[in-house]
Design goal:
The structure holds two protein chains of two kinds.
Chain A (H helix, E strand, L loop, with lengths): L2 E4 L3 E5 L4 E3 L1 E4 L6 E6 L5 E7 L5 E3 L5 E5 L4 E6 L8 E8 L9 E3 L3 E6 L1
Chain B lengths: L4 E3 L2 E4 L5 E6 L6 E7 L5 E8 L2 E4 L8 E4 L6 E5 L8 E8 L11 E2 L3 E5 L1
Parallel strand pairs in B: 2-11
Antiparallel strand pairs in B: 1-3, 3-8, 4-5, 4-9, 5-6, 7-8, 9-10, 9-11
The chains are: A mainly beta, B mainly beta.
């Protein structure tokens, strides 16, 4: 069975500082990995995804993530955060339906709080 | 170019009542997924539907919950005889197809926040 572990439930950081949100997964099959962002009382927006190819994936809003197969990790990074990045971030792995990205297994989320 | 539309955004029901949550997928999308987000939890998959078919309902509670995606109209998630533990945010996602390479993005709606009092 596939699972996702987000190691930090909350990450406070000062504005313009770098940030890393950690995500580890387990899977017995090929994986596709995703990071979503959820702003308060909003739906989920896709930040970036890893399907194949380069292990360094760049997404929207200056975020990037690196797929590390040996460490089964997909950590999200941003070199300099803004107040507007305050949100909850979810790591997800594709479920058994390999042909669609809708059936996803999510981690519990990491709340990023950016302070001035 | 409307995205996934869910309504209502907020729904309050008394214990024992029925809750109906609606999801209109992106125009042209024929695949719908429902997820539930409990407080302090990530999203949990509930059910995957195509038009007029339930493909996977492995995440649905065995009782009181049902879902449909008719040929015409929105997808409906129905919860009968609601209890306080049903209070959660329910999200719908849609994608155009599950054929071909897995590079078809699923789009999420803004969710329906159900409160059972």
């Amino acid at each position: 069975a596939q699972s996702v572990t987000q190691l930090d439930s909350q990450v406070p950081v000062f504005e313009e500082a770098p940030v890393e949100l950690r995500c580890n997964y387990s899977s017995s099959v090929s994986v596709y990995l995703f990071w979503y962002v959820q702003y308060p009382n909003q739906g989920l927006q896709l930040l970036l995804k890893y399907l194949s190819g380069s292990t360094l994936v760049k997404g929207i809003n200056g975020f990037e993530a690196e797929f590390n197969k040996s460490q089964t990790s997909f950590h999200l990074r941003k070199p300099s955060v803004h107040i507007s990045d305050t949100a909850e971030y979810f790591c997800a792995v594709s479920g058994p339906y390999g042909g669609s990205q809708g059936n996803l297994i999510f981690g519990k989320g990491t709340k990023l709080s950016v302070k001035p | 170019n409307a995205g996934v539309m869910q309504n209502p955004r907020h729904l309050v029901r008394r214990r024992g009542q029925e809750a109906r949550l609606r999801c209109s997928p992106v125009k042209g999308h024929s695949h719908v997924y429902w997820y539930r987000q409990l407080p302090e939890e990530g999203l949990k998959f509930m059910v995957y539907l195509q038009k007029e078919n339930i493909i996977d309902e492995s995440g649905m509670p065995k009782e009181r919950f049902s879902a449909e995606f008719p040929k015409e109209g929105p997808s409906i998630l129905r919860i009968q005889q609601v209890v306080r533990g049903d209070s959660a945010a329910y999200f719908c996602a849609s994608s155009p197809t599950d054929r071909g390479p897995i590079n078809t993005e699923a789009f999420f709606g803004q969710g329906t926040r159900l409160t059972v009092v």
